[in-house]
Amino acid sequence: MPNQLVGIVFDMDGTLTRPNLDFKAMYQRCGVCTSKDLILEIEAMPAEERRRAWEIVDEMEEHAAQTAELMDGVVPLAQFLSSKSIPMALITRNSKASIATFHERLWRPNNLPELKPALCRAFKPTKPAPDALLHIAEQWGAPPHHLLMVGDSPSNDVVSGRRAGAMTALVDTGRRHFESVGGKTNLVGESQPDFHVCQPDELIDLLQTHFHI
Fold first, then answer.
1. Which residues are annotated as catalytic?
2. C-alpha closest to that of 74 among 178, 207, 201
3. Are 73 and 202 in contact (CB under 8 A)?
4. How far is the C-alpha of 8 from the C-alpha of 166, rounded, in Å?
5. How far apart, in whole angstroms, are the C-alpha atoms of residue 72 and residue 29?
6. Are 149 and 169 in contact (CB under 8 A)?
7. Staple partner for 53: which of 30, 75, 171, 173, CB 3.0–4.6 Å?
8. Is 10 helix (H, G, I), strand (E, B) or coil?
9. pLDDT, tens digit, for every residue of 84-125?
């Protein structure tokens, strides 16, 4: 029996937009080891060091937002969801300004309905904590297991979705996690999604097959 789908929650970078943010450079400029959680590490810095680090992050995110492009397949997927009156929301570890630029530059020009709620890193705790997703479920008046979390990060998006009790879909554009033949994966435990696609519009057939919409 198909699952009921109340709404879809998207990640932004690498999911709706092509990856164009040099995270390695961001970590280096902030003096944070790439194996650590950047946001948590910055928040633990002394006040002046923390201020400078956030200035670096804001500068790099703003440049990325101004040059970002939508991922192939995003517009057809969003149009399909809109035609089915399926609400769409956003959870990102980016800033509120980056979300505003995304809507202004890329979303509204394609006549797509605003993603809302659209939660930035100011909503704490950030992914992979489930709190933001649970907040959206509450806003929509839906149990989390009727939501689908879609993102490109197994450790943030998928883990967040699973911890919230939502269904999860991984956008694996570079086939970093799933083999093209046989669908074998190197992901285990909380980081293993319910579904995986190579680009966003592949979700259309998946949704029609597995969900009552």
1. 11, 13
2. 201
3. yes
4. 10
5. 31
6. yes
7. 30
8. strand
9. 999 999 999 999 999 999 999 999 999 999 999 999 999 999
Q: How far apart are CA 90 and CA 132, in angstroms?
A: 10
Rounded Cα distance between 183 and 202, Å, is 15
Q: Which two tokens stand for residue 148?
A: 């689908």
In the chain, % helix, strand, coil (3-state, to 5) comes to 45, 15, 40
**83 versus 1: which is more confidently predicted?**
83
DSSP run (H or E) holding 167? strand 167-171
What sign for the dihedral angle of Cα 198, 178, 18, 137? positive
pLDDT in tens, 155-183: 999 999 999 999 999 999 865 665 444 55
> Which residue matches tokens 């980016």?
94
State residue 180's pLDDT score: 46
The structure tokens 């943030």 sit at: 156
**Phi, psi angle pair for 58, to nearest 5°:** -60, -40
**Measuring CA to CA, which residue among 98, 165, 176 is closest to residue 138?**
165
Cα–Cα dist 37/41, whole Å: 6
The rounded distance, in Å, linking the Cα atoms of 208 and 213 is 7
Distance CA 174, CA 66 (A): 23
- Find out whether 170 and 206 touch, Cβ atoms under 8 Å: no
